[in-house]
Design brief:
Structural class: mainly beta
Radius of gyration: 17 Å
Number of domains: 1
Number of helices: 1
Largest sheet: 8 strands, antiparallel
Order of helices and strands: HEEEEEEEE
Strand content: over 45%
Distance between the termini: 17 Å
Strand order of the largest sheet: 1-2-3-4-5-6-7-8
Length: 131
């Protein structure tokens, strides 16, 4: 599972290296109402280019429930890739996750993740994948 997570993260982040020099931006909005009158509204935007991205999402539901989440990541030739996500619920609870991955001289990949949950719990993980 760890290997798959790191490889997936590496694939996504390393693909940023292939982006063109021109930054691109995309925004989306949507709303829905269920059969019992509960509603949901979502706004999101992404800007990517030059080996990096920034993403913002705002989700608001019925009864004051919702959250805001911001994410960013970047890759640079020779120094690997990193990403981070931070979120805040409407009730003020926050969470975050940061990770990085780098290709070593021997061809292996080394990566790590640190996460903090909305109730203060935290975890960290480091792994190396040999070629």
């Amino acid at each position: 599972m760890k290997t798959r997570l790191v490889l997936t993260t590496a694939g996504i982040l390393l693909s940023l290296l292939a982006t063109t020099a021109e930054a691109r931006e995309r925004s989306r909005s949507g709303s829905a109402t269920g059969p019992q009158g509960r509603s949901l509204h979502r706004d999101s935007s992404v800007e990517a280019g030059n080996g990096s991205y920034q993403r913002h999402r705002d989700v608001q539901g019925s009864a004051g429930r919702g959250y805001v989440r911001d994410a960013s990541g970047s890759c640079a030739e020779g120094s690997g890739c990193s990403r981070g996500v931070q979120g805040t619920t409407n009730s003020g609870k926050t969470w975050s996750r940061d990770g990085s991955i780098v290709r070593n001289d021997d061809g292996s990949l080394s990566g790590g993740t640190v996460a903090t949950g909305p109730n203060g719990e935290s975890m960290s993980r480091e792994t190396t994948i040999q070629p």
